[in-house]
Amino acid sequence: MTTSTDQEQNMAISPQRTTRELRRIAIDGPMTIYEAVEHKRELLAALADADGLEIDLSNVDEMDTAGLQLLLLARREALKAGKPARLVARSAASQEVLDRYQLASYFDDSTTSLS
Q: Can you give the pTM of this predicted structure?
């Protein structure tokens, strides 16, 4: 039998602060196509339940374009809702993908517009 504590320990995305104002979440392990469905659900739920989102990628050990698309989705949905969403720490793997697609600065400024 799996308890809620067991499920929390197995989550790749873990909330670090759970105040309504701003939620900081840490993503551990890979951000690839294989985790995309779970990560999407958890990122959007965290955003819906807070007034802003800080995403810690310091423990991401692998990222592909599906992971990048999830970050873009979270950012776009935050902007649509008028909420900040920013990256607060980046692993070498996540920074490499952001640099490859020249999107690192897009996540640095929480006021970037949709246009």
A: 0.77
Buried b (16+ CB within 10 A) or exposed e, 75-103: bebbbeeebbbbbeebbebbbebbeeeee
User: Sign of dihedral through CA atoms 103, 80, 64, 11?
Assistant: positive
pLDDT of residue 92: 97
CB 80 within 8 A of CB 112: no
- Dist. CA 88–CA 24, nearest whole Å: 9
User: What residue numbers bound the domain in which 21 lies?
Assistant: 4-107
pLDDT at 21: 83
Q: What confidence score (pLDDT) does residue 4 get? A: 43
Q: Is residue 74 part of a domain?
A: yes
Query: How far from chain centre, in Å, is Cα 26?
Result: 7
Do the domain assignments include residue 113? Answer: no
The answer, yes or no, to whether residue 93 has pLDDT greater than 60, is: yes
Yes or no: say if 28 and 14 are a contact pair by the CB < 8 Å rule.
Answer: yes
Total count of domains within the chain: 1
- Whole-angstrom distance, CA of residue 115 vs CA of residue 113: 6
